[in-house]
Amino acid sequence: MTTPHELAGIGVSPGVAYGPAVIVRLDVPDVPNRFIDDSEVEGELRRLDEAANRVVEALSALRDRVRERAGREESHIFDAQILMVRDQEFRDQVRQCVRDGMSAETAYEFKALELRNVWSSSPSPMLRDRIADLSAIQNRMLAELLGHPGEHTWNFPIEDQVIIVARELSPGLTVQLDRDHVVGLVSEEGTRTSHAAILAHSLGIPAVMGVVGALEQIQDGTMVLLDGQTGSLLLEPTRQEIERARTQLSRRQKLALELEGAVTQAAITPDGIQLAVFANVDLPDEIALAVRHDAAGVGLLRTEFLVTGRAALPTEDEQADYFRRVTESFSGRQVVIRSYDLGGDKFPAAFRAPAEANPFLGWRSIRVCLDHPEIFRPQLRAVLRAAAGGRPVGLMLPLVTRVEEVEAAREMMLEEALGLSRTGIPAAASVPVGVMIETPAAVVIADELARHSAFFSIGTNDLVQYTLAVDRGNARLADRFSTHHPAVVRQLREVLRAGKAAGIEVSVCGEMASEPLSAVLLLGLGFRSLSVAPPAIPLVKWVIRNVPEAVARAAAEAAVLADRESEVTRALAEAVRRHCDPRLIEAFAALPRPHPAATLRQ
Ligand code: PEP
Ligand code: MG
User: What is the dihedral of CA 482, 485, 488, 494, to 10 degrees?
Assistant: First the structure.
């Protein structure tokens, strides 16, 4: 429960910050309704075009600045905004309003608000995330049309070390922040996948987003203690609370140091069972950390970043270069490339994806790939080319619900391999094709799927979502999104059994594998391969090095028989508390609060 001086949001960029709040109201400029007569239409249309050109120029400059400060990938955010400014359909609609008698700014505001309403009521969290981008360009366009450009930049001096509080943070504003003066960020809108969140993370500024009521509760000068990992905010904290946050922070830092120091040690339990800990790689920038943390390879190479926020699909060459770069970075270690998990707004801007009432149950992932071979086949060729010369590359298919999907994908892969060999382009004749187990349907037919798959990897993020009917992105349901639910635990055991019976490797690549108590559960159930986000690799290895397999196995046996989720958590916590080195419990206490393991020692 939160107390009146405690607010909760989503921790999107880790770190603890303490400072006075500065409220930033970047509302859309006030636009007077102005109507025009026929003789003014041409002039207003020209004003629209000129304003759009100036906005594109300013956004291009910002993109270059971001490329310098935060990196190339982040700078694509501004390519996406430029595309929105240039969007022909939207421009035509605004122009029509001008022809119908509205001034340029009245027409632009009218259409932008209309679009905003459609997006805010969309069930797609990704579309809702893009509202900040829409606001950003709406502000810029209106400021240009009203003759006061430049108001969308920070034009007030920030001298102290402050925490910025706003309704919503656009990436354009976030990147202009000066890290020396802005120690934290809070916003009412936004989630972990918002562009501003990604930028805050890259810039190393602790941030909490999605804080309902922040602008009502926080005034200019309110002292705020923010934890960008747990998403908690304390207003006017007591000295004890500040002290506690400091202790927690220093525990985390101590643990981080200890883990870093032992990162190259193998993940072997005290009783001699070895696990392979692979990395999940979403963005190219994560490769270096995964290598530094001595990942066994890449267990999940997400490929959506190649598409999101881009104008067009990446070419086969671009993909082959990227895949090759990844395999070279992991010199000789296995790299599993996941085919496009497209859906929602994870489409290139030029792709006219249909609006759907239930995008998570909609046209996504393997379904899109199989329906659009012109998207899928170049990716298959790129994978085959990356595997040339015997490089250990695998292909993994997301959201599989039918054996036919695996058969169709493999057939296309073999056809492409044949095509490549005919043209003499160096490429493998085939790669192992594995399946992500992410739906209850896949669990039920795991025996059949195993006969058609080279390996399994369990995507628990989606598996939990579909099993428990809990939207993985819905903050209100966060408590119900549980990897310790008996229905989940038993499915994990079932998939492992099916995989073992068929003699294929079964790994877990959902976030669950990064959570220490759940890692104990997976070890005890018999998993010998996990794939986790690069920052989590040291902790997961360290847990494995400290928990005897026999202890984990006994806890997992109790977990499998448990009727309720609390019993599963209790069985795991008891095992750790009773049988493991007390230093492990101390370390768990350093974890951010939402981790069940953090409650082992308050
Ligand atoms: C999963 O669903 O657990 C998974 C790893 O895939 P993603 O999070 O990309 O959907
Ligand atoms: Mg998934």
Answer: 150
The verdict on residue 456 lying in a domain is no
Task: Report yes or no on 553 lying in a domain.
Answer: yes
pLDDT, tens digit (0-9, with 9 covering 90-100), for 247-297: 877 877 787 788 888 888 999 999 999 999 999 998 887 899 899 999 999
Number of domains into which the chain is organized: 3
The answer as to whether 598 is a domain residue is: no
Which residue among 76, 97, 152, 195 is the active-site one?
A: 195
Nearest ligand atom owner, CA of 512: 1
141 and 210 fall within a common domain: no
Q: For ligand 1, pick from 488, 509, 529 the residue to mutate: most ligand atoms within 8 Å of CB.
A: 509
509 is catalytic: yes
Co-location of 528 and 552 in the same domain:
yes
Separation in Å, CA 164 to CA 153, 155, 176, 193, 398:
14, 14, 12, 19, 39
Can you give the CATH number for the domain in which 165 is found? Answer: 3.50.30.10
- Ligand 2 center–CA 203 separation, angstroms: 27
Q: Is 190 left (phi over 0), alpha (psi -120 to 50) or beta?
A: left
Residues with Cβ < 8 Å from 154, sequence gap 6 or more?
A: 173, 176, 177
Active site residue 485: no
Instruction: Tally the residues of the chain.
Output: 602
Q: Among the three residues 93, 122, 145, which one is the final residue of a domain in this structure?
A: 145
pLDDT tens digit string along 355-394? 788 888 999 999 999 999 999 999 999 999 999 999 999 9
Cα(415) to ligand 1 centroid in Å equals 28
Average pLDDT over residues 62-76: 72
Q: What is the Å distance from ligand 1's center to 320 Cα?
A: 23
Question: Do strands 232-235 and 223-227 pair parallel, antiparallel, or not at all (unpaired)?
Answer: antiparallel
Q: Are residues 426 and 573 in the same domain?
A: yes
Q: Which two structure tokens, joined as six digits, stand for 589?
A: 């206490």
pLDDT above 70 (res 224): yes
Domain boundary among the residues 205, 237, 269 is at 237
Strand partners, 164: 22, 185
Tell me the C-alpha distance between 170 and 231, whole Å. Answer: 19
Domain that holds residue 70: 38-145
Residue whose Cα lies nearest atom 6 of ligand 1: it is 459
488-537 confidence digits (pLDDT tens) = 999 999 999 999 999 999 999 998 998 888 999 999 999 999 999 888 89
